[in-house]
């Protein structure tokens, strides 16, 4: 059996970088930067006011009770050539450029206005409520480095500095299919005897979408060598082909029947639980992932191999899920020969350390327990026992909203 790390290294070595392209900022979320981003200007571009108030000279307001002449008005979006001199002030709104001469803003709450004069009621330190030019991002700063996968906040910063068409890696095209004579579309209201609904394909589509790829749905492929060959050929026009089912030891494991003699596809027995049978290689120019049939095995093998590979192809530096150290809230199954992926949920804190318990049944067909899970507790090969209270590494695949809104009660 092939250890997890060894198999993943082989998969990731095969996952080559895609081409780059420019995308409109509106479509940049989830894309990976192909080059460093250097700030072409300061943010903010000029010193501006952090408050609604009065732009003044700090020296004038070192003590309370100063009375100043108001010589102008500066809403956001406007500028002035008027110079603020000693004894003078310009009314200013948040975001407006600090006028020449001024170095301090007194917020409106600390003033009393009387006609064209303003009294500053407190002492205000020089520089107060002034946002300096470049205080957020300085001209020439490397703002983000190549390999950064853009979040909504990255997109906002790019917009701020005027990068309207960032250079990013192309999205991989991924063709995917379910195989199995027993499968019927998920929309089927009634199940024929022996049939089950195809849960892998909708799940796979969602998993793929989360990795920022373009998808081609090849549908349900029956356990028929000609039909599968045709589907694989069609899929090989994409960058990546993903199938589920038919890679283990059964008589009708047609993926295996079709590809077994193919020198470019390997059939592995992985030292992991679940998802032991797994196929990997190339079909034409496309990378091929032959995931097992059981839905939890699909999830585990997609997460461990396909997802990091797809992120790597897109140039991402960080391609592996976050891991936390947690405490087992109960005994976990082990298999000394395999890495066991226990589907767990965080059920609270144990002396400040997250405590995790099984999210349900651990058989590879029990997808409901994976839906209830926050992550995989990784029980490494060679582990004889994980008892309640012991430390475990948990790979978080879901970090969703977890606090319910209680309507203020
Ligand atoms: P296989 O490896 O093809 O023998 O599939 C292993 C198990 O997973 C069998 O019980 C299949 O019925 C089940 N299975 C395979 N494909 C799917 C699918 N797309 N959706 C739900 N279950 C599946
Ligand atoms: Mg099958």
Notes on the structure:
The protein is an alpha/beta fold and 409 residues long. The protein has four domains: 4-15 and 171-313, 3-Layer(aba) Sandwich (Molybdenum Cofactor Biosythetic Enzyme, Chain A); 21-43 and 135-169, Molybdopterin biosynthesis moea protein, domain 2 (Alpha-Beta Complex); 48-131, Molybdopterin biosynthesis moea protein, domain 3 (Molybdopterin biosynthesis moeA protein, domain 3), CATH 2.170.190.11; 323-396, MoeA, C-terminal, domain IV (Beta-clip), CATH 2.40.340.10. It is built from seven helices and 26 strands. The chain has helices at residues 4-14, 152-160, 200-210, 225-235, 254-259, 295-313, 367-371, and strands spanning 20-22, 37-38, 48-49, 53-56, 66-74, 88-92, 104-107, 111-114, 117-120, 130-131, 142-144, 167-169, 173-179, 183-184, 196-197, 214-221, 240-244, 265-269, 272-273, 277-283, 286-291, 323-328, 339-350, 353-358, 375-379, 391-396. The strands form seven sheets. A six-stranded mixed beta sheet has the order 7-4-6-5-9-8, with no helix packed on it. It has a six-stranded mixed beta sheet with strand order 16-13-17-21-20-18, sandwiched between helices. Strands 22-24-23-25-26 form a five-stranded mixed β-barrel. Helix 1 packs across helix 6 and helix 3 runs parallel beside helix 6. Bound molecules: adenosine monophosphate (AMP) and magnesium ion (MG). The site of magnesium ion (MG) has 5 residues, from loops.
């Amino acid at each position: 059996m092939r250890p997890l790390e060894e198999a993943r290294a082989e998969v990731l070595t095969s996952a080559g970088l895609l081409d780059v392209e420019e995308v409109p900022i509106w479509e940049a979320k989830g894309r990976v930067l192909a080059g460093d981003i250097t700030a072409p200007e300061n943010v903010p571009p000029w010193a501006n006011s952090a408050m609604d108030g009065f732009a003044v000279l700090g020296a004038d307001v070192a003590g309370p009770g100063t009375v100043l002449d108001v010589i102008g008005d500066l809403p956001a979006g406007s500028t002035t050539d008027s110079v603020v001199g000693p004894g003078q002030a310009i009314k200013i709104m948040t975001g407006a450029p600090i006028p020449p001469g001024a170095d301090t803003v007194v917020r409106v709450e600390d003033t009393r206005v009387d006609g064209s004069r303003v009294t500053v009621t407190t002492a205000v330190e020089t520089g107060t409520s002034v946002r300096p030019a470049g205080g957020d991002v300085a001209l020439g700063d490397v703002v983000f480095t190549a390999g950064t996968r853009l979040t909504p906040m990255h997109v906002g910063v790019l917009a701020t500095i005027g990068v309207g068409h960032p250079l990013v890696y192309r999205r991989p095209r991924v063709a995917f299919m379910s195989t199995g004579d027993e499968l019927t579309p998920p929309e089927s209201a009634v199940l024929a005897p022996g049939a089950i609904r195809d849960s892998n394909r909708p799940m796979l589509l969602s998993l793929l979408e989360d990795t920022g790829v373009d998808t081609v749905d090849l549908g349900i492929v029956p356990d028929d060598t000609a039909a599968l060959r045709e589907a694989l050929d069609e899929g090989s026009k994409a960058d990546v082909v993903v199938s589920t089912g038919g890679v283990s030891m059964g008589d009708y494991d047609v993926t295996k029947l079709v590809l077994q003699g193919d020198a470019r596809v390997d059939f592995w027995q992985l030292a992991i639980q679940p998802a032991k049978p797994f196929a990997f290689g190339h079909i034409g120019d496309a990378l091929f992932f032959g995931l097992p049939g059981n839905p939890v095995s699909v999830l585990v093998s997609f997460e461990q191999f396909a997802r990091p590979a797809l992120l790597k192809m897109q140039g991402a530096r960080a391609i592996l899920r976050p891991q936390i150290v947690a405490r087992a809230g109960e005994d976990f199954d082990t298999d000394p020969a395999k890495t066991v992926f226990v589907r767990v949920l965080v059920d609270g804190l144990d002396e400040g350390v997250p405590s995790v318990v099984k999210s349900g049944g651990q058989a590879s067909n029990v997808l409901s327990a994976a839906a209830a899970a926050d992550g995989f507790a990784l029980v490494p090969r060679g582990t004889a026992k994980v008892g309640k209270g012991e430390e475990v590494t948990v790979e978080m695949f879901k970090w969703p909203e977890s606090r319910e809104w209680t309507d203020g009660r």
